[in-house]
TrEMBL record:
Pfam families: Glyco_tranf_2_3 (PF13641)
Recorded GO MF terms: hyaluronan synthase activity
Primary location: membrane
Domain of life: Eukaryota
SUPFAM superfamilies, sorted: Nucleotide-diphospho-sugar transferases (SSF53448)
Keyword presence, Glycosyltransferase: yes
Protein name: Glycosyltransferase family 2 protein
Subcellular localization, as worded in the UniProt entry: Cell membrane
GO biological process, one term: extracellular matrix assembly
Membrane-spanning segments: 154-174, 565-583, 590-618, 624-646, 667-688, 694-713
Length: 767
């Protein structure tokens, strides 16, 4: 059915919903216009706010546009030639490239899409242009009980968290010993850590049994399902990108559509887009270049219709703690959603997106969240995917039964809003670092997330492999796009924030071990640090950002969040106390290291028994890169959490060859240099105190060598190394060739040698 056939007459669609927008002293005759313009090839968009008295009557429909250029709105490419696209109905589009690139249409304003938004002084009525879209009938919306906060659970969780934090701090301050083992002792935090790990392993095993039972039960039920796949990327390595796309084509459950979004429309970005079209040529997948970011359209519409918050600070704090939004939020959010939906439906009318099995979009470069927002919007409002949306990254290889297994778990309970699965490392054999990361991934998913799944509160649905229920994604998509921190738009932690949005609605999140994907891990230490910095920032930002979610879910969610938040600080305090503090036992630091290594080895043995993978024994050495890399990075992430610059994850060969300046490298790893100085100076102090010789303070010089390792590869260091190499080579040649004549004769004697530069031949004799 065509989208145009769904547009009903005005008298049957207009809902007469009263929405209030309290604009600051907006004149009744003034029209404020917010423009989002692309380059000369792109469309121009306007969000108009006009008083009801001066607003022209607009007929009901999704979007208004001029009809004078309707047959030339879209073109497809054959080489460098752009031809007008013939009108099509439900047949498959044979065009491979679409964009609005008609100067006559631009001049006449046919490509200007206007979203009528009425907003004036306080008390004015704002109406939304309705569209033929009812989410309750389009999406599979299960019947759920009304969401009610349990006061007892809420009070218990808050008191439990505060008591736990207070007990840990007090126990550490007074050096409380729960178990005294003679040569060492176990404090309150160590005891809690042992209890937590024992519970994690037990719950992880229980989750495996539960998921297997649910899978066998759901396998007997036959139902028609619709799942779309959303995959986004930015300048990905072409081979990794192609392997990812091929894995998506081999799913046992055929997806309704595969939506690829390339975050960029410059020449280097088109290689990804062309690769998508090439891999899905059997489905006649087109490449559509979008003129603007849908996320920007959504945000600008929202903030232009949001009244000024004049409440007191106490009222704002109350709204934050209770999870309520500021006045005017619901109205502005509805307008923003309608504006994006209208635009998506207009694109569907032009390009027949709903009839496609695979499609690739390129858009102006933003960041991952903007690309995900585009993919989600197309999946929900153009394709109208009924059951769920599966998300993955551009460097991920997905198992063949991924859609089947994850949809099975999603349908096992109406209260489940999203699910995730196991993530492995496909390049784990490249280096020791990737091997250690692969071991860490196993523990993170098969122990930690599996335990959380037992309590139905997985804290983060992983980006490489997640599935969201369509009706719930439609609910959280707008607030997710509007997230800010310190007045800035957030540009990382997209997956964790999506998960928190589900948890804040009282929905459950689960994990399945029955399927998996393989993603890429950084192969260099500096790149790994950049990745961990982004992840740590998102963790601290989201840790206590959603107080309502703790009221809806098990205390285990709050317990794990509290322990993971406090762990870096307790560990740092313990390390410096061991190095610089006084103790009756001089060997106390060494005993502490042995105990920590022993605990890690016990965890590895347990993992070996579960997975039968001997490589997991390497996890006992993961503590070294945690200590010298991840621990100080967590502290640095907390300090720079308000810095929202996206540490680009581009992995193309061109991007990897791009060198960082010393300043850029300092921002990424400068905190490690400070950490190394503090640690090795403390280590030298400890050894000198143990041996009674101050000469061991020179151990601190090791920090200088490690700092050189961190900066090796930056642009200035590489250039400096080249200059030093040239100077050494020049000195060596001069010593071997005292005169230019000797050098010339030497090179002439062996004609097989390459003639050196003139500078190496000595100065020519005068006369």
């Amino acid at each position: 059915m065509e989208i145009a056939d769904l547009i009903q007459p005005q008298q049957r669609l207009r809902s007469n919903v009263q929405l209030f927008s309290e604009k600051n002293q907006l004149q009744s005759t003034r029209s404020s216009r917010t423009a989002l313009a692309g380059d000369d090839r792109h469309l121009t968009w306007y969000i108009e706010a006009t008083p009801p008295s001066t607003r022209p009557t607009t007929p009901s429909g999704s979007v208004t546009s001029s009809s004078s250029c309707s047959s030339l709105n879209i073109g497809y490419c054959k080489g460098d030639e752009v031809n007008p696209r013939p009108l099509v109905s439900a047949q498959r589009l044979q065009s491979r490239f679409y964009e609005s690139d008609d100067s006559i249409c631009r001049a006449q304003g046919a490509n200007i899409v206007k979203t009528p938004l009425e907003s004036s002084h306080p008390g004015a009525t704002t109406s939304v242009v309705p569209t033929a879209f009812d989410s309750t009938t389009v999406f599979d919306s299960p019947t759920r009980k009304p969401l009610v906060i349990d006061p007892f659970r809420a009070v218990f969780n808050v008191m439990f968290s505060l008591s736990l934090i207070g007990a840990l701090i007090a126990g550490y301050a007074i050096s409380l010993r729960v178990f005294d083992l003679g040569i060492t002792s176990v404090g309150l935090y160590g005891t809690l850590f042992l209890i937590e790990y024992t519970t994690q392993v037990s719950c992880a095993i229980a989750n495996r049994i539960t998921v297997d039972r649910l899978a066998h039960r759901q396998a007997k039920k036959v139902r028609e399902t619709e799942v779309s796949i959303a995959v986004v990327g930015y300048r990905e390595d072409e081979q990794a990108w192609r392997h990812c796309l091929r894995s998506l084509q081999h799913q046992t459950l055929r997806p309704k559509c595969v939506i690829g979004v390339v975050d960029g429309d410059d020449e280097p970005d088109l290689s990804m887009a062309n690769a998508f079209v090439d891999e899905f040529q059997s489905m006649a997948a087109p490449l559509i270049r979008l003129p603007i970011l849908l996320s920007d359209l959504h945000r600008n519409t929202y903030f232009s219709n949001m009244p000024l918050d004049t409440r007191s600070l106490l009222a704002k704090a109350g709204s934050y703690l209770s999870g309520r939004y500021r006045p005017g939020h619901a109205e502005a959010l509805a307008l923003a959603r309608q504006a994006v939906m209208n635009q998506v439906l207009e694109w569907d009318r032009k390009w027949s997106i709903s009839s496609m099995e695979a499609v690739c979009f390129s858009q102006p470069h933003g960041h991952k969240r903007t690309a995900m927002f585009t993919a989600f919007s197309i999946s929900l409002w153009a394709l109208r995917t009924r059951d769920g949306v599966f998300t993955t990254d551009s460097d991920t290889l997905v198992q063949e039964d991924a859609l089947d297994e994850m949809l099975t778990l999603l349908h096992s309970s109406p209260n489940i809003g999203g699910v995730t699965a196991d993530v492995k490392i496909w390049n784990r054999a490249e280096s020791l670092l990737t091997r250690l990361c692969a071991a860490r991934y196993w523990f993170a998913f098969n122990i930690e997330r599996a335990c959380q799944s037992t309590w139905r509160c997985v804290g983060c649905l992983s980006g490489p492999m997640s599935m969201y229920r369509s009706c719930d994604l439609d609910t959280i998509l707008g607030p997710w796009n509007l997230q800010t921190l310190g007045g800035k738009s957030t540009t990382f932690g997209d997956d964790r924030h999506l998960t928190n949005r589900l948890l804040a609605l009282g929905l459950k999140t689960c994990y399945t071990h029955r399927t998996w994907c393989e993603s890429e891990s950084p192969t260099t230490f500096v790149r790994w640090i950049s990745q961990q910095t982004r992840w740590s920032k998102s963790f601290f930002r989201e840790a206590f950002w959603f107080p309502p979610s703790f009221a809806f879910h098990s205390p285990w969610l709050l317990l794990e969040t509290t322990i993971q938040t406090l762990y870096p600080f307790i560990l740092v305090a313990t390390i410096f106390d061991l190095l610089f503090g006084s103790s009756n036992n001089q060997w106390r630091p060494l005993i502490w290291v042995i105990v920590m290594f022993g605990l890690a080895l016990v965890k590895c043995i347990v993992a070996l028994c579960i997975s039968c993978d001997p490589w997991l024994l390497l996890f006992s050495t993961y503590s070294f890169i945690y200590f010298f890399g991840l621990l100080p990075t967590k502290l640095w992430a907390l300090v720079t959490m308000n810095y929202t610059g996206w540490g680009t994850s581009a992995r193309s060969s061109t991007e990897r060859r791009r060198e960082q300046s010393v300043w850029q490298r300092t921002f990424h790893v400068g905190h490690l240099a400070i950490w190394y100085i503090a640690i090795f100076v403390g280590l030298g102090f400890f050894i000198s105190r143990l041996c009674g010789n101050l000469v061991f303070l020179s151990v601190g010089a090791v920090a200088f060598l490690l700092t050189i390792f961190l900066y090796w590869g930056s642009a200035e260091v590489v250039q400096c190394g080249v200059q030093i190499k040239k100077c050494l080579a020049r000195i060596g040649v001069r010593r071997k060739s005292p005169s230019g004549a000797w050098a010339a004769s030497a090179w002439a004697a062996d004609s097989s040698l390459e003639k050196p530069p003139k500078a190496y031949l000595g100065r020519p004799e005068s006369g």
